[in-house]
Design brief:
By secondary structure, the protein is mostly helical. It has a domain at 22-76. It is 66% helix and 0% strand. It contains 3 helices and no strands. It is flat and about 70 Å long.
């Protein structure tokens, strides 16, 4: 019973949506990173609005997370895949 409550709480606090785009492992991973970024920004905004953290702290954390997301995009989606070498004619 406790596990069910814990799972329900986690689904509420950390919702995940299905990926509906063109599937590649890189795109799926980036989508998970993007969803995590959005969730964390939402939590930070709530903390800042509620007076739990300062505006500056929220801004700095979001800025750092944005840099991480940009790095993730560059590593996962912006890499040009090398063409396979041509085989010599037989």
């Amino acid at each position: 019973m406790t596990d069910d409550k814990e799972q329900a709480k986690n689904r509420f606090l950390y919702p995940r949506s299905s990926y509906h785009g063109e599937f590649t492992p890189e795109k799926l991973t980036f989508n998970a990173n993007l969803q995590e970024f959005a969730q964390r920004v939402s939590l930070l905004c709530g903390l800042e609005t509620g007076g739990q953290i300062s505006t500056e702290e929220a801004y700095l954390q979001i800025k750092e997370m944005w840099k991480q997301l940009k790095r993730s995009k560059k590593e996962l989606l912006d890499v040009s895949k090398p063409e396979p070498p041509e085989l010599p004619p037989e």
